[in-house]
Amino acid sequence: MEHVQVLIAGGGIAGLSAAIWCERLGLSCVLVEKNDRLGGQLSDIHNQIWDFPPRVYPDGAALLDELLAHRSIRALRPRLGEALRSIDLDKHLVHTDKTVYLADYLIIATGVRPNRIPALVGCSRVLQPWFSTTSQGTAVAGQDVAVIGGGDRAVESACNLLPHVRSLYLLVRSDRLRARPQWVERLRPHPSLHVLWETVVSDCREQNGKAVLTLDSPRSDTPQTLVVDWVLPRIGVRGNSEGLGQLPALEGGYLQTDVNLRVGADWIYAIGDITNGAAYASLSLAVGQAMKAVKHISLQVPSL
Ligand SMILES: Cc1cc2nc3c(=O)[nH]c(=O)nc-3n(C[C@H](O)[C@H](O)[C@H](O)COP(=O)(O)OP(=O)(O)OC[C@H]3O[C@@H](n4cnc5c(N)ncnc54)[C@H](O)[C@@H]3O)c2cc1C
Q1: Residues near ligand 1 (Cβ within 6 A)
Q2: PANTHER family from the xrefs (predicted)?
Q3: CA–centroid distance, residue 13 to ligand 1 (Å)
Q4: Cβ atoms < 10 Å from Cβ of 279
Q5: What is the distance in A from the centroid of ligand 1 to the CA of 107?
Q6: Fewer CB atoms near the end CB (10 Å): N or C, the chain?
Q7: Residue environment code for 67-103, b if the CB has 16+ CB neighbours within 10 A, otherwise e
Q8: Do domains 2-114+237-300 and 118-233 have the same CATH topology?
Q9: Is the pLDDT of residue 303 over 80?
């Protein structure tokens, strides 16, 4: 069993920032990342990033390139393809799918993943969660697309796709949009836009290269089936906290921390999207929390 001072789970911007702060404060760390690459959601950001001061980045890839070139990250030797699985709170043991660590401290920075709609599982006409309506909208030009959701990302996606597609169906589970007013205002009436309120997809089958959706709705003006070329689910995200059932969590798998970002035990911290919830998910907060968690750890270590 390997003994580590600080084990960081997750190689997105939160986990990577924590690793930088470990070096800054003289702590040794090991970072495990489930995927075979670092960066987490940074690779999915195709919009300009102008709210992570002071730089303006054309997209997440540009920011990630800079982050990976950081001296501390180049020296990090992250353990890719290794996922946090469970924790033994009393014994300071952290189980991954590769090994068991005896960790003085654990920082959970495992981020979020898109929610899935069970009825769409296995349908090849469903666009992947990382489909970018900003940079890839022309890929569905002239076609019929159903966007599912009523939050910011659904409405933003609908706005981005409208100039390209033949018909845009926005399927909203409730009778109103949850998106912020600035997005709702952009979604003006448009001949190609059809909003189906109080509508959920209960089944999806493929026919002649199209998706045939079965719709459930109490409204008489909603069709029972909808045939589209592509389906784009945008129904939010949930925290990557599987296997961590003994830690206090909020609805949606988000870990609930105390003011020092500790969760469930005095040696376990959670930072970044896994604890922030959709409303506060941001690069700035993730990076700030990394500093705070590692600083708090450094203040607990007697020899420092
Ligand atoms: C399209 C898009 C645009 C955005 N635009 C902006 C913007 O303009 N400005 C802004 O401030 N924010 C933006 N955000 C939000 C921002 O990207 C996130 O807040 C931030 O990247 C969260 O970083 P994180 O490290 O907490 O999580 P993530 O980036 O999700 O990283 C978590 C990492 O943990 C890994 N992981 C998961 N489970 C495990 C496990 N069990 N064991 C080990 N590793 C695991 C994942 O593979 C991932 O690499 C955007 C997000 C998206 C999707």
Answers
A1: 9-15, 32-35, 40-42, 44-45, 47, 49, 51-52, 83-84, 109-112, 240, 272-273, 281-284, 286
A2: THIOREDOXIN REDUCTASE 1-RELATED-RELATED
A3: 7
A4: 8
A5: 15
A6: N
A7: beeeebbeebebeeebbbeebeeeebebebeeeebeb
A8: yes
A9: no
Distance 112 CA to ligand 1 centre (A): 6
Q: Measure the CA–CA gap between 181 and 206, rounded to whole angstroms.
A: 35
Q: How far is the CA of 254 from the centre of ligand 1 (A)?
A: 13
Task: Classify domain 2-114+237-300 by CATH number.
Answer: 3.50.50.60
Most informative mutation of 13, 101, 110, 237 for ligand 1 (most atoms within 8 A of CB)? 110
Residue 304 has pLDDT above 60, yes or no: no
Domain boundaries, the chain: 2-114+237-300, 118-233
Mutational pocket test of ligand 1: of 132, 133, 283, 289, the residue with most ligand atoms within 8 Å of the beta carbon: 283
Residue 182: which pLDDT band, with cuts at 50, 70 and 90? Answer: confident
Report the separation in Å between the CA atom of 46 and the middle of ligand 1, taken as the mean of its atom positions: 13
Report residue 183's pLDDT band, with 50, 70 and 90 as the boundaries.
Answer: confident
Per-residue pLDDT band for 119 (boundaries 50, 70, 90) equals: very high
| pLDDT tens digits for range 43-86 | 999 889 999 999 999 999 999 999 999 999 999 999 999 999 99
Average pLDDT score, the chain = 95
Quick one: 122 exposed, middle or buried, by C-beta within 10 A (0-12, 13-18, 19+)?
A: exposed
Tokens of 180: 């912020």
Instruction: Say what the pLDDT of residue 188 is.
Output: 86
The CATH number of the domain covering residues in 118-233: 3.50.50.60
Q: What is the number of the ligand 1 atom nearest to the C-alpha of 85? A: 41
